[in-house]
Amino acid sequence: MNPFSRRTVLSLGAAGGAAMTAFGARAATFGNPDQPPEGAINSNAASLREPGPKNAALDAQFPDVQSPPPTDIGDMPQFWSSFNIMPKRIQGGGWARQVTQADFAISEAVSGVNMRLGPGGIRELHWHLAAEWAIVTNGACRVTVLDPDGHASVQDVGVGDLWYFPAGYPHSLQGLGEDGCEFVIVFDEGRQSEYNTLLVTDWIAHTPPAILAENFGVPENTFKSIPLNDLWIFQGKEPGPLAQDQAAVASGGAPENPFTFSLGATKPIVRNKSGTLRLADSRTFKVSTTIAAAIETIEPGGVREMHWHPNADEWQYWIKGEGRMTVFDAGPRSKTADFKAGDVGYVKRSQGHFVKNTGTGDLQFLAVFKTPIYQEISLSDWLSHTPPALVAQHLNMRVEDVMKFVNTRPGIVPG
């Protein structure tokens, strides 16, 4: 016998309708599209209370987690993390902390490191299984690197400057001046850890002395005082003039493309009263064949327009200010989170998103993509380059209103 008889279905429908009436359900409205309704605006004061234990300081950092907008819906992977909650590994010459996929599951494409080298502090000679891209956020740093053709490079970099080392290229870093340097590294592999690198001291300490003598053409006792443990970040001596170090490595010739680049000095690809956007990818920073990046600055109240990136995930490092990002995915799914300086954000490829400056000063963040070429699709650009009558039918709008949509790809718009 069919358990879903006509009588059963009718009775269930009547009960459901009564329940909807009892709970005060209402039709979906603009800005409040879901059934059952979402958000605090659709609740009552008593149900919003939190009588249980809580960390008030932590709650205050995430107002849109505590009370999401009613347009948020569904479940999405956590796309917020922060260097601020990661433990520092501190040694004689500086410190580092990292956000890898082990701590931030969504971050499959890249991992990030925040590192400081004090005055003269040295990140020892090493190499990685992944490519390394970095931006200096404070102070100055001396960078050394060797390519497979024997071309060496020594350069000094400062705030807003980048470096890029392809996977396997050996390099070192040293803090300069009275304050040393701080920088953010991005590896093009989500599982890459800064604490698991190939170190020159490790290899030499684990090679028989006779082999060392034969390899370098010097007596065995030349190596009698080598460190028996790796150095990683250690206190060194302030290096000499840059020209002196460059002359010391010049015999192998210069690399075809520079390993450093000044992103801060580039002409913005977006500049208007709401902010600026500067870009570096393999078209301008030619050696950077796996990473493209942008520095985005949004004025108070401004909005990074609704857009998505069709060719890569977006990893973000929030440099200053306060902002709120909403991410949209199929489902529908939509989630909002608040960000502050030192935080890390992540948006999967082709997911729609926008960022609003919610603070009183400039908001600035770094957007990094595991791709040689930066790509972006703007929602307003798409809709303003689709036949207006077609768009009007989708959005139940007048054609003349659709024709007023912004069609200049502003990138950042006023609030």
The backbone outline, from C-alpha atoms, is elongated
Q: Which superfamily, in CATH terms, is the homologous superfamily of the largest domain?
A: Jelly Rolls
The portion of residues assigned to helices is 10-25%
Would you count the extended β strands for me? 25
Q: What can be said about the biggest beta sheet?
A: 12 strands, antiparallel
Just give the CATH class of the largest domain: Mainly Beta
Specify Rg, calculated over alpha carbons. 27 Å
Mean pLDDT comes to: 93
The CATH architecture term of the largest domain is Sandwich
Low-confidence stretches: 1-24
Proportion of strand residues:
25-35%
CATH topology of the largest domain: Jelly Rolls
Q: What structural category do the secondary elements indicate? A: alpha+beta
Summarize the structure.
The longest helix has 17 residues. Helix content is 17%, strand content 34%. It contains ten helices and 25 strands.
Description:
It is a single chain. The chain has 415 residues and is an alpha+beta fold. The chain has two domains: 86-261, Jelly Rolls, CATH 2.60.120; 266-413, Jelly Rolls (Sandwich), CATH 2.60.120. It has ten helices and 25 strands. The chain has helices at 6-22, 45-48, 56-61, 63-66, 200-205, 209-216, 242-248, 379-384, 388-395, 399-402, and strands spanning 80-82, 89-91, 94-99, 111-117, 121-127, 132-146, 152-158, 161-165, 171-175, 181-187, 198-199, 233-235, 260-262, 270-272, 275-280, 292-298, 303-308, 314-320, 322-329, 333-340, 343-347, 352-357, 363-369, 377-378, 412-413. The strands form three sheets. Strands 2, 3, 4, 5, 6, 7, 8, 9, 10, 11, 12 and 13 form a twelve-stranded antiparallel sheet that branches. A hairpin with a 2-residue loop joins strand 14 (270-272) and strand 15. The longest helix has 17 residues, at 6-22.
